[in-house]
UniProtKB/TrEMBL annotation:
Residues 20-61 form the FecR N-terminal domain. This is DUF4880 domain-containing protein. One of its GO terms (molecular function) is sigma factor antagonist activity. Pfam families: DUF4880, FecR. Residues 117-210 form the FecR protein domain. Gene3D superfamilies: 2.60.120.1440. It comes from the Bacteria. The lineage of its organism: Bacteria, Pseudomonadati, Pseudomonadota, Betaproteobacteria, Burkholderiales.
Length: 326
């Protein structure tokens, strides 16, 4: 693809092959490179505009190593060549593919999910029982803070999605669940909450939940069992009947009913490491079915075997693109 397509510098689109080669050079130059190696790298960078863009990403990443968190700092750069070196390359490319977005996201995350009381990794689901007996199940890449005081029980959803079953034990303190968009007060209930970029979605399975937008207290509304809604800081969307797909994750499934392929892939991507992308030619393809969120490879195989698409894998399966079948 053209070097200038999609922007300039770190925002430019770079081919996977160039990124993989840049990662290879980065590892080599960090592992006792000779002057001949450095000259060869310079020649490689000058031979193609894509190489220059890919190397710019690599240098940007290298400059950030000193402030990256330990789990991303990649001490494997100093390992000997071989299988471990290849693994290092793959992890480097993983960061390079999304720079600078990944870096900006990390800086935000430092004060968000990673600092939370309870959180889950990508692909992980976890159920915890709080001090009052309330049960909270966290979906993939989710994070909550819990604050119980003499007057309240507050669960703050920082990121991701949770299923909350309020305790039946008598407790004079009101239980509340908050997001930046507002406050939810369950009235003896089971309910699902998911954070989006600028909104929160709520599905009530049992009981009822009072929703109060953060900047519009007079807009408070009670959502009864069998209903769902979505709200931002000032507005609550019209109430709808609960869509079973919204809570299918609790059973390890992703439900699709005439869902666009690009939307399904976006949901699937929440549960897996790596990148899955969809070519524009098949993005609007309508897909139906029940797909396992714990086995993304199986889900992709199901899509390829059922619909007129193929999956092209790069970087040892880290980068997958769904394309129209020839």
């Amino acid at each position: 693809m053209p070097a200038g397509d999609g922007g300039h510098g770190l925002n430019a689109r770079v081919s996977p092959a160039a990124l993989e080669q840049a990662a290879d050079w980065l590892v080599r130059l960090q592992d006792g490179a000779t002057s001949e190696d450095r000259d060869a790298c310079a020649q490689w960078r000058a031979s193609d505009p894509q190489h220059a863009l890919a190397w710019e990403r690599a240098e940007h990443l290298l400059n950030k190593f000193g402030t990256l968190p330990p789990e991303l700092a990649m001490p494997v750069l100093n390992r000997a060549p071989g299988a471990s070196r290849r693994a290092a390359m793959t992890r480097i490319v993983a960061l390079m593919l999304t720079a600078p977005i990944a870096w900006g996201g990390w800086r935000y995350a430092q004060s968000q999910p990673w600092a939370a009381d309870i959180h889950t990794a990508i692909g992980e689901r976890r159920t915890v029982t709080l001090a009052d007996g309330t049960s909270v199940t966290l979906n993939t890449a989710s994070a909550i803070d819990v604050r119980y005081t003499a007057t309240e029980r507050l669960i703050t959803l920082r990121n991701g999605e949770i299923l909350v079953r309020s305790s039946h034990q008598p407790d004079a303190r009101a239980l509340r669940v908050s997001t930046p968009e507002g406050m939810m007060q369950p009235l003896g209930t089971l309910f699902n909450v998911r954070r989006h970029e600028c909104s929160t979605s709520l599905a009530v399975l049992e009981g009822a939940v009072r929703v109060t937008p953060a900047c519009a207290a007079d807009e408070a509304l009670v959502i009864d069992a069998g209903s769902q809604t979505r709200f931002n800081k000032r507005h609550i969307a019209p109430i709808q009947s609960t869509d079973p797909a919204m809570t299918a994750w609790t059973s390890g499934m992703l439900l699709a009913d005439q869902m666009r392929l690009d939307e399904l892939v976006a949901e699937l991507s929440r549960y897996r490491h790596g990148l899955v992308r969809v070519e524009p030619a098949v993005a609007a393809l309508r897909v139906s079915g029940a797909f396992p969120i714990g086995d993304s490879e199986r889900t992709l195989d199901m899509l390829v075997s059922t619909y007129p698409v193929d999956a092209v894998q790069r970087l040892q399966g880290y980068w997958i693109t769904l394309i129209a079948r020839a």
